[in-house]
Amino acid sequence: MSGSTIHAIRVHEQGGADKLRFEEIEVGAPGKGEARIRQTAVGLNFIDVYHRSGLYPPPQPLPFVPGSEGVGIVEAVGEGVSAVKVGDRVGYAGPTGAYAEARLVPADRLVPIPDAIDDATAASVLLKGLTARYLLRQTYVVGPQTVLLFHAAAGGVGSIACQWASALGATVIGTAGGPEKVERARKLGCAHVIDYRSEDFVARVGEITKGEKCDVVYDSVGKDTFPASLDCLKPRGLFVSFGNSSGAVEAFEINLLQRKGSLYATRPTLGNYVSKHAELVEAADDLFSMITSGAIRVDAPQTFPLADAGAAQTALEQRRTHGSVVLIP
Ligand code: NDP
């Protein structure tokens, strides 16, 4: 199959949401090991904002197509590809270049989507759900004895993670901004929800746990919740910093971990947990079975046309979204 002209969003220079340009680009034929996907739904993630704003370096040379999550149909495969074939319904979480009607993806990054899960739902849960899974099952092995704090519990990752943690039997304390999101987090299985816009979350965690505090804190808010998050941990507890929604955590002295109670700290990223194809497929199967069994309920995502990616990113940055957002090409 030869290349063709499609619509995509591109970033020519990093900056505000106005830097996202909807334009025509060429997509080539798939090379060795690649598949070409005609996309039906594209997941919106906070990392897209970091790539656009400049908090993270450009993932590819400028101008680049942002986005790391999508679902669609395989329309061509390159040499040596046997894992997928033309017509397969697939998704991915990771390779940048998702904000487009069609794109090339390394075939070993694709996973099949079960029939029971529609395209928009799949594109709303792959990256966020795989993240929730490794955080709860690998970064720290959460179980019935675990008491954990999950910040931004009503967000995309938080909505899935809080349900999953509660299905694993943990006591889940969530934080959320404002009464509507607090209510949503409660419905998602948080035993306790703290409105961290109006309440002191450290004091509330102390009250809720009767001074015992948490085994693990999952913090994607970053700058605004650090170092207070450390004060929510038991001695030898684990601080998991996995995002920067309010800005990056500033450099700190490692002795701080000793003063706060011999704490552990990690800064993980999804790519290191699913770098092998077998790990990716196993994790995706686990995620999809949690959804199809009903253990994790996924609300229909909020949708924006692909051309309005700037408005979607602005809503995410301004904390106006709850759950997941999907762009429709
Ligand atoms: P969310 O839907 O969770 O949106 C971010 C939420 O963070 C907001 O809705 C808001 O919730 C909260 N927040 C708190 N302070 C701020 C602020 N100053 N500005 C903006 N938001 C703020 O996004 P995603 O589900 O896409 O991602 C969640 C986090 O997880 C991100 O930080 C992302 O980078 C990270 N992530 C990390 C991965 C990894 O492997 N390390 C992989 C995937 C995501 P509220 O209003 O309730 O405070």
Automatic annotation (TrEMBL):
Instruction: Give the EC number.
Output: 1.6.5.5
Which keywords appear in this protein's UniProt record, sorted alphabetically?
Answer: NADP, Oxidoreductase
A Pfam family reported for this protein in Swiss-Prot or TrEMBL: ADH_N
Give a yes or no for keyword Oxidoreductase in this entry: yes
Q: List the SMART domains hit by this protein, alphabetically.
A: PKS_ER
- Gene3D superfamilies from the UniProt entry: Medium-chain alcohol dehydrogenases, catalytic domain, NAD(P)-binding Rossmann-like Domain
GO MF annotation terms: quinone reductase (NADPH) activity
Task: Show where the Enoyl reductase (ER) domain sits.
Answer: 15-327
This protein's record includes keyword Oxidoreductase:
yes
Q: Which NCBIfam families does the record associate with it?
A: PRK10754.1
Q: What is this protein called?
A: NADPH2:quinone reductase
Taxonomic classification: Bacteria, Pseudomonadati, Pseudomonadota, Alphaproteobacteria, Hyphomicrobiales
